[in-house]
Amino acid sequence: MEGTPMWVAGRYEGVRSMLSDPRFANNPATVPNGAAALLPGEPLRKLGLDDDLVPYLSDTILDSDGRDHARLRRLVTPAFSVQRIMTLRPRIERLADDLLDALPNHATGGVADLLDHFAHPLPIQVIGDLVGVPAADLPSWLRWTHDLSFDRQSLTGTLRPLVDYTHDLVRRRRAEPGDDVISELLRVQDDDGDRLDDRELVTMVLSLVIAGHDTTAAFIANSVWALLTHPDQLAALRADPGLMPRAVQELLRWCGPVLVARTRYAMRDVDLGWASFRSGDAVAAALSGANHDPREFADPKELDIARKYQNRGEVHVSFGAGPHYCLGAALARLEVEAALGRLLERYPGLALAVPERDLRWHAASGMRKLAELPVRL
């Protein structure tokens, strides 16, 4: 609700504990206290989105909580298991190689925009292939997802053809199933029609493709920028490509694209030790703040691709934490590992084509996203 106060959790401990606490909800409409009881789709209606389209953006797996969220997540989780994702590496590397081979065709005077011709098209091809979107239709998806991110005043004109297309794609997959997420979800639907209706299925597909493209594209570009502006780290990675998995984790910590997680709402009075919240309080988790908390990370402003931790596993919170931990985290890590690896091998002399201060960044709320990434091949 406009004018409603919001708390911001910025310390590592606070962000991780709040995101993992089931007493905080993603959907404000479920909060008993009226202070946060804002209908999830109301901001979209204010932007002019037609009522019948609102649920496709406001009633997603990200907007659900508790049993409903667990049900939706359980249905789609097998498609994003680490075991299945790892089988995609050869396909991702081939896609990256094809884009990199074509990069000189998009260059003028040896300078190409790596965002438009590599960072954006690679993730849309990967997630489209996984979900079941035909390759011939991916340029339209790329345009739709871009417009949804940057042209919020034309939501209806962008979303309606996207929703209509996805409903048609579901019908086609029902008639001719394949080895893709849509076909798997349809099999679940046929086994028990109450578990996933058509609107939920289309919404899930939209959520997976949009989320699986935009943030990954931004992170690929951010990672290239970070390495090109830290030549010592770039040299270390070139000297030891085996550092790549650790480098990607450090890049996620240092320049992950999502700065602030979705707002959570206290379902009841909550005392977390470090802070107390009243029922209905809105709390934002500053992921970037947590990832640069000196209480958790030594010299947090330093990019160190060989950074070691006492704890095993993923320490940063760029993918969130708790029940809403990013479903596509394994896929995103693999894509960026493959993208950076092939890029650095294919273009050993890669460099920024403009001074770093001249790079343009999108003023996207809660995001760190380059508007372009001109590089000299």
Main attributes of the structure:
alpha+beta; single chain; three-stranded antiparallel β-sheet; 377 residues; 8% strand; four-stranded mixed β-sheet
What is the structure about, briefly put?
The chain has 377 residues and is of the alpha+beta class. It is built from 16 helices and eleven strands. It is globular, with a radius of gyration of 21 Å.
Please provide a written account of the structure.
It is a single chain. With 377 residues, the chain is of the alpha+beta class. Helix content is 49%, strand content 8%. The chain has 16 helices and eleven strands. The protein has helices spanning 12-19, 42-46, 55-58, 66-76, 82-86, 89-102, 114-119, 121-131, 138-150, 155-175, 181-191, 198-228, 231-239, 244-255, 287-291, 329-346; strands spanning 6-9, 24-25, 111-113, 264-266, 270-271, 276-277, 282-285, 351-352, 361-362, 369-370, 374-376. A four-stranded mixed β-sheet has the order 1-7-4-2. A three-stranded antiparallel β-sheet has the order 3-11-8. The longest helix has 31 residues, at 198-228. The radius of gyration is 21 Å and the shape is globular.
